[in-house]
Amino acid sequence: MKAHDGMYIDGAWRPAAGSDTIEVVNPADEQVVGRVPAGTAEDVDAAVRAARAAFPAWAATPPAERAARLAALRDVLDARKDEIAETVTAELGSPLPFSQAVHAGVPILVAGSYAELAATYAFEERVGNSVVHQEPVGVVGAITPWNYPLHQIVAKVAPALAAGCTIVLKPAEDTPLTAQLFAEAVAEAGVPAGVFNLVTGLGPVAGQALAEHPDVDLVSFTGSTAVGRRIGAAAGAAVKRVALELGGKSANVILPSADLAKAVNVGVANVMSNSGQTCSAWTRMLVHDSRYEEAVELAAAAALKYGDRIGPVVNAKQQARVRSYIEKGVSEGARLVVGGTEAPRPQGYFVSPTVFADVEPGMTIAQEEIFGPVLSILRYEDEEDAVRIANGTVYGLAGAVWAGDEAEAVAFARRLDTGQVDINGGRFNPRAPFGGYKQSGVGRELGTHGLAEYLQTKSLQF
């Protein structure tokens, strides 16, 4: 794993405009594993100009050829999956088995799904006396987070490429090495120069310059709701399109008829995986009064099993943030069942898997996104109460429903104000749309709905 000391612009690694660099730190041992350039507005401008110049030819490239480049990219990522997993583990601290299965494996699936979709999607249709044509929106500014560094890149870049857009990527400063590896894969896959460009740097500098650049037609951002608001405001001032995948406080609703042990164990695993750094994590577990204490005992036992298998959170700031939420939960009267603020290891940014019981819907830990391995268990009296609690936050990204009868679970799921609901532990589907209601975002990722974000529509009347 060797860090590049330049930016990937117009098909080549070029020196950065400035001399400042960003240290990449392994959060598991606090050791520096690399350095990348801190991009400036000048670097962003060069990348956008390259993307703009490459756009006409790429937009005119037949979908079958774009599909072929995506298939080649999928194959390169697959061939380098071990290197990807090791890189994510080094800069994010994720346990290697999780990096192999999820951080490396899922993006390969997503890239493959868009290779297939680009070859089969109907970019044109006849509607009465009109031909409705879908064409690429233009230059995309993609700003991605650190929690799933490669997946979030592929979830934006793959549909943009399939649509015929060109891209400038600004990855999170905590995990830029994975982005550099992806740029190498793009080159190896034969994607033409200028179609994909990479600028590493800090959000307030490179990210802001990209979001506000007048030659960027669409900003696709994944991250906090607070930053999403600022990007949305800047884009609105320029009448520019945005796709925002933001925060979540998802409910895992366990109905009385459910297999309680399975629902709780899967729910705890969902929260603790990736050290709780998942926007769609089911961080609120809703259990009926009649089974509440049994669920608390099961959750505590399941969380304790994660003690030696969970990785660190991404940095010291995030560690302090998660600990402050745990302290807030205790101070507001929630019952700390397992975990707490004490560090489980002397080195690294680790947080103990934590479970709270007796959490009231209005408590801070039941309303705000913590982004750490912290589960809140809430009780409900009946179905109406469960719906009220589940929908009672500003977020609406994901969720889960468990019931002995699938039809019962589906009926309840339809009442949830959220973009995606897993029924009795439903499996990940790379073709299903992902995105939120309310303050969880604008737009969708994955599948045809994700592709549509990068297209604009023209109708021809005859």
From TrEMBL:
**What are the Aldehyde dehydrogenase domain coordinates in residue numbering?**
13-459
Q: Which UniProt keywords apply?
A: Oxidoreductase
| Active-site residues per Swiss-Prot or TrEMBL entry | 245
Q: Which InterPro entries match?
A: Ald_DH/histidinol_DH, Ald_DH_C, Ald_DH_CS_GLU, Ald_DH_N, Aldehyde_DH_dom
Q: Which family does it belong to?
A: Belongs to the aldehyde dehydrogenase family.
PANTHER family recorded for this chain? Answer: ALDEHYDE DEHYDROGENASE, ALDEHYDE DEHYDROGENASE-RELATED
Q: What is this protein called?
A: Aldehyde dehydrogenase family protein
Species of origin reads Streptomyces kaempferi
